[in-house]
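quick q for whoever's on today - can somebody do inverse folding on this one?? i tried earlier but teh output was garbage lol. tokens:
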């Protein structure tokens, strides 16, 4: 960024940096890898954002439309705004006027195509000038900082009374950061905030990369292993002695339902001469993980660290009753998605009690 960039060039640069598709995949992965208890100052929920420039002269010359989605409710746009960029000569800054859709909730709205928004008139929006953002250049860091005037964004909430919002954004060439919270003016308590008012980091999606949309969220690798898998279990004792081997059929399904994504797995396996054992696990997908439980276990699965898309998963299961060993499992997948290899360790009271290796192939459609 040139320190000598004039105001008009700054406006167009802000518009260009704000457009595109973004995701917070890297921030979520780092938070999950950190481990430990859930900390309010760290983000754990996968989010993705789409920002488009509209040809909407009835609203302004430079008009942007963005929708932000959360993994916990992928069918709804958590944020849905129209922003009009213009120069503010008195402030010597670029002003981003936020237009709020009239009717319905402010957050978690049904997704809306940009083509439908582009034809809306000014009467379709509410304006709150105190909630506009003012962008200034920080050339030494190659970024623009946009923020509301302190204490200016005030509005009446039907349940919490008078509320003041505080929002700030950083625009880098390939990153978008923001943080947001609102405070009840009556007593100064926090009405709503994102993970302790910490910064959310969104990376710009690479060319051809689909970070997630309302219909295709950024789901962990185990979800992408949907299908029917045929394989063979090999179970070993703690000293490495082969105890038994038997065939298996694993079916993985993921279904979108109101409020999020549901996970369902059916496992059929057992020794050749014995009746087939059927184990069902049900769960949900959120915060970058699959959370599931069966009659014997409860646990979670997350992507193995590395380049996206992940080539495998880490699965941790805890026994739901005394005497049931915990299970730590690594799943590795072939690049073509047609084969996977699983290695499990069984632990009970701090001792290794067994290992299991499973080789599987995915059946055709």
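ok took a stab at it. sequence:
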């Amino acid at each position: 960024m040139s320190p000598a960039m004039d105001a008009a060039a700054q406006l167009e640069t802000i518009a260009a940096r704000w457009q595109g598709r973004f995701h917070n995949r890297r921030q979520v992965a780092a938070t999950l890898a950190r481990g430990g208890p859930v900390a309010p100052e760290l983000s754990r929920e996968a989010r993705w954002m789409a920002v488009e420039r509209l040809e909407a002269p009835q609203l302004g010359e430079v008009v942007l439309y963005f929708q932000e989605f959360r993994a916990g409710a992928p069918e709804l746009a958590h944020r849905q705004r129209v922003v009009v960029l213009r120069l503010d000569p008195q402030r010597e800054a670029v002003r981003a006027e936020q237009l709020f859709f009239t009717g319905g909730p402010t957050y978690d709205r049904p997704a809306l195509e940009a083509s439908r928004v582009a034809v809306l008139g000014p009467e379709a929006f509410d304006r709150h000038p105190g909630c506009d953002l003012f962008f200034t250049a920080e050339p030494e860091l190659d970024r623009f900082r946009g923020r509301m005037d302190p204490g200016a964004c005030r509005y009446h909430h039907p349940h919490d009374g008078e509320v003041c919002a505080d929002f700030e954004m950083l625009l880098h060439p390939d990153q978008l950061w923001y943080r947001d919270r609102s405070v009840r003016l009556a007593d100064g308590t926090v009405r709503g905030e994102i993970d302790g008012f910490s910064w959310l980091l969104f990376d710009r999606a690479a060319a051809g990369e689909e970070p997630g949309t309302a219909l295709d969220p950024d789901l962990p690798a185990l979800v992408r292993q949907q299908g029917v898998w045929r394989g063979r279990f090999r179970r070993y004792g703690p000293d490495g002695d082969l105890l038994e081997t038997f065939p298996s059929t694993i079916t993985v399904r993921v279904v979108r339902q109101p409020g999020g994504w549901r996970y369902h797995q059916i496992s059929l396996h057992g020794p050749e001469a014995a009746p087939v054992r059927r184990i069902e696990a049900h769960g949900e997908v959120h915060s970058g993980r699959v959370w599931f439980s069966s009659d014997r276990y409860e646990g979670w699965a997350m992507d193995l660290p590395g380049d996206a898309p992940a080539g495998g998963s880490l699965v941790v299961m805890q026994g739901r009753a005394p005497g049931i060993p915990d299970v730590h499992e690594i799943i590795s997948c072939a690049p073509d998605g047609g084969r996977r290899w699983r290695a499990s360790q069984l632990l009970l009271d701090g001792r290794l009690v067994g290992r299991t290796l499973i080789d599987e192939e995915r059946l055709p459609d």
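fwiw The radius of gyration is 25 Å. also DSSP finds three helices and 24 strands in the chain. so keep that in mind when u check it
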